[in-house]
Amino acid sequence: MRRSSGAVRAFYAGMQGVSSRIVDSLPELGGQLTALYPEKYIFDVGGLPKILAEDLARDLVEQAMQFERTLVIAGGEGCLRAPRAERAWL
Ligand SMILES: Cc1cc2nc3c(=O)[nH]c(=O)nc-3n(C[C@H](O)[C@H](O)[C@H](O)COP(=O)(O)OP(=O)(O)OC[C@H]3O[C@@H](n4cnc5c(N)ncnc54)[C@H](O)[C@@H]3O)c2cc1C
User: Fold this and answer.
1) d(CA 17, CA 82)
2) What pLDDT does 17 receive?
3) Residues lining ligand 1, judged by CB closer than 6 Å?
4) To test ligand 1's pocket by mutation, which of 32, 44, 55, 80 has the most ligand atoms within 8 angstroms of CB?
5) Is 86 part of any domain?
6) How far apart are CA 86 and CA 90, in angstroms?
């Protein structure tokens, strides 16, 4: 799959009972889907005739977050280096 690999990988890790972490410098998860073209329709997702990019991102993140041991570290420029990152066990 080409899009939103963080959320997709976290979902499949959760399905296998493996914990995962998503680290993103942006405050909102979703990558290009939410940052670049949230209002664009996506037509090439199996089972979905069309879906807005922001809705797809929301659903992918929700799907990934259903597992207890998915850790999200998101928010703030350079979050890998700065202590400002917001951390939450979901
Ligand atoms: C206009 C446009 C239309 C598109 N339409 C489609 C389409 O219809 N169908 C399709 O399959 N693909 C489409 N794509 C391609 C698709 O958007 C990308 O392939 C997909 O977003 C890649 O997902 P990703 O999760 O690997 O990377 P990204 O979506 O780029 O996410 C990477 C994330 O990593 C974060 N990040 C980067 N560096 C760091 C760092 N050092 N520390 C912390 N966080 C970091 C970024 O903030 C970002 O949120 C389109 C792309 C564009 C630009």
Assistant:
1) 30
2) 92
3) 2-6, 23-26, 31-33, 36-37, 42, 44, 79-80
4) 32
5) no
6) 12
Q: Domain of 65?
A: 5-22+30-75
Reported as a single tens digit per residue, the pLDDT across 9-55 is: 999 999 999 999 888 888 888 999 999 999 999 999 999 999 999 99
* pLDDT, position 86: 43
Q: In this structure, which residue's CA is closest to atom 2 in ligand 1? A: 37
Mutating to test ligand 1, I would choose from 1, 3, 12 the residue with most ligand atoms within 8 A of its C-beta, which is 3
pLDDT at 22: 87
Number of domains into which the chain is organized = 1
Residue 43 maps to a domain:
yes
- Rounded to whole angstroms, the Cα distance separating 18 from 67 reads 9
The pLDDT value recorded for residue 3 is 66
Determine which residue's CA is closest to atom 6 belonging to ligand 1.
42
What are the strands, taking DSSP E only, across 1-90?
20-24, 41-42, 51-52, 70-74, 86-89
Quick check: is 70 in a domain?
yes
pTM of this prediction exceeds 0.85 = no
